[in-house]
Design brief:
8-stranded mixed sheet; BirA Bifunctional Protein, domain 2; 465 residues; OB fold (Dihydrolipoamide Acetyltransferase, E2P); 12 helices; alpha+beta; 2 domains; 5-stranded mixed barrel; elongated
Length: 465
């Protein structure tokens, strides 16, 4: 007897095998003909496998007819061709064992639709639903594609620290890490005495692994980081999380144009793999989510069309000439908002767009200043349906200008001496970008709230589970 998954049991090549299945009951209905239909799922695929449990089973009356939605079971039986048009196989049970029951009076997941808001309140059980099983499998595939893409191109995977003493973005939205007793903060001259803290200085949860990644790129050529990042922005919107996952490649000897080419190839690889390996789940998203019927067309559009490239200045001109009224004013020097980005990608160009050469006042200190002195070698990749999905830049490799940029943004270069050393000792042109995993899953699935594409969301006022 072979132990297999539900996904394997649903394939025609399993017909004739005697197998063992283990999973959770989705539904059970009893026939007047003396048998029961059990829909079983184990998370390995979108669909269930139908179990035919006959009344001749010794525990039919005592167990089978009392199986509830959510109960865990072991099924042993033969896989046979199904007469039903919508399922290729079914399993005729020879043995049904109840592992763990689920009280139908209290189990919150029943055979009916549940709102996403309700499911967030039971985040420990929502993976058992069709939607969140699909999200999990898609998230897994995207993560695998990320690692495979970079491995095939000679990148090294670097684990950068979660705890840091530097603010990569210079925005100040940092979670502080401390072991000091909040009831007895040590102070010197009215200021917190961090010499008594665990690290002897202020420490924070990282907002990016980029700076440390640059150190390894300037030794090994091409690296990438992939891990959690944290931002203490009080943004309680469907597009923001306090904890989320970022992949950040850094490449020595890469100009901005090289960075753009890599970003385009990277995004297309993720989409191609999702279409190849997660077709059943993507079909579920396309059919079940409201206003998501064009999901496959959207993905194919990004996959098959060359990305349009244009400078920020030209994008501002297009927006000003559009004749549209904007919630956020458009002017050179203003940051582009989601409504502007989506107009460019969805209506003006109708394809992915890479904007570059942004005003220096909008971007962090580490981005390379152009010869005009007004702009930096930044880039944002915009896709229909989401807006910005990748942000990156060529990094500033000139020490004097880097220090000048730090001072402009109120950062003390003395706190970044190790980072400045990369410009003192064998500096090279180098570039990199960041892609948020959760925003990528939003784009691929068509879901509208970022809280629904991460297992246990962390948002302002919410750190449950």
């Amino acid at each position: 007897m072979e132990k297999i998954t539900v996904a394997a049991a649903r394939k025609p090549e399993s017909i004739g095998k005697v197998v063992k299945l283990q999973g959770w009951v989705r539904t059970r209905r009893d026939s007047k003909g003396g048998f029961s239909f059990i829909e079983l799922n184990d998370g390995s695929c979108q669909g269930n496998v139908q179990i035919i449990a006959a009344a001749e089973l010794p525990n039919y009356e005592s167990v089978v007819k009392h199986l509830h939605t959510g109960a865990s079971v072991t099924i042993e039986g033969e896989v046979k061709a199904s007469p039903a048009a919508k399922q290729p196989t079914e399993v005729h049970a020879q043995r049904v064992e109840l592992i763990g029951d689920a009280d139908p009076e209290t189990y919150p997941l029943q055979k009916k639709g549940h709102s996403f808001e309700f499911l967030r309140e039971i985040a420990h059980l929502r993976p058992r639903t069709n939607t969140f099983g699909a999200v999990t499998r898609l998230r897994h595939q995207v993560s695998m594609s990320i690692h495979q893409f970079f491995h095939e191109r000679g990148f090294y995977y670097i684990h950068t620290p979660i705890i840091t003493s530097s603010d990569c973005e210079g925005a100040g939205a940092l979670f502080r890490v401390t072991t000091l007793d909040p009831e007895a903060i040590p102070k010197v001259n009215g200021q917190v005495d961090y010499t008594q803290d665990f690290f002897g200085k202020p420490a924070y949860l990282t907002v990016s692994g980029q700076l440390q990644g640059e150190a390894y790129a300037c030794a090994l050529g091409k690296i990438y980081t992939f891990g959690p990042t944290f931002r203490a922005e009080n943004s309680n919107t469907p597009r923001h999380l306090a904890e989320f996952w970022m992949v950040e490649p850094e490449m020595a000897f890469y100009e901005l144009s090289d960075n753009m080419e890599l970003a385009e190839a990277f995004l297309k690889r993720i989409i191609a793999d999702a279409l190849q390996y997660c077709g059943e789940d993507l079909k579920f998203f396309a059919e079940r989510l409201e206003n998501n019927q064009g999901l496959f067309d959207k993905l194919e559009n990004v996959l098959n069309k060359p990305f349009q490239r244009l400078p920020y200045t030209e994008a501002v001109d297009i927006l000003l000439r559009s004749g549209r009224s904007w919630e956020f004013p458009v002017a050179w020097g203003n940051d582009l908002q989601s409504e502007h980005e989506r107009y460019l990608a969805e209506q003006h160009f109708r394809c992915p767009v890479i904007l570059y050469d942004y005003p220096r006042t909008l971007k962090p200190f580490y981005m390379k200043v152009n010869d005009d002195g007004r702009t930096v070698r930044a880039m944002d990749v915009l896709v229909p349906g989401v807006g910005e999905i990748i942000g990156g830049s060529q990094r500033e490799d000139r020490l004097d200008i880097l220090e000048q940029r730090m001072q402009e943004q109120g950062l003390n270069p003395e706190g970044y001496q190790w980072y400045c050393d990369l410009r003192r000792y064998g500096t090279v042109p180098h570039s990199g970008f960041g892609l948020g995993l959760e925003r990528t899953i939003l784009f691929l699935s068509g879901l509208s709230n970022i809280r629904d594409v991460i297992p246990f969301p962390r948002t302002p006022g919410h750190a449950a589970f």
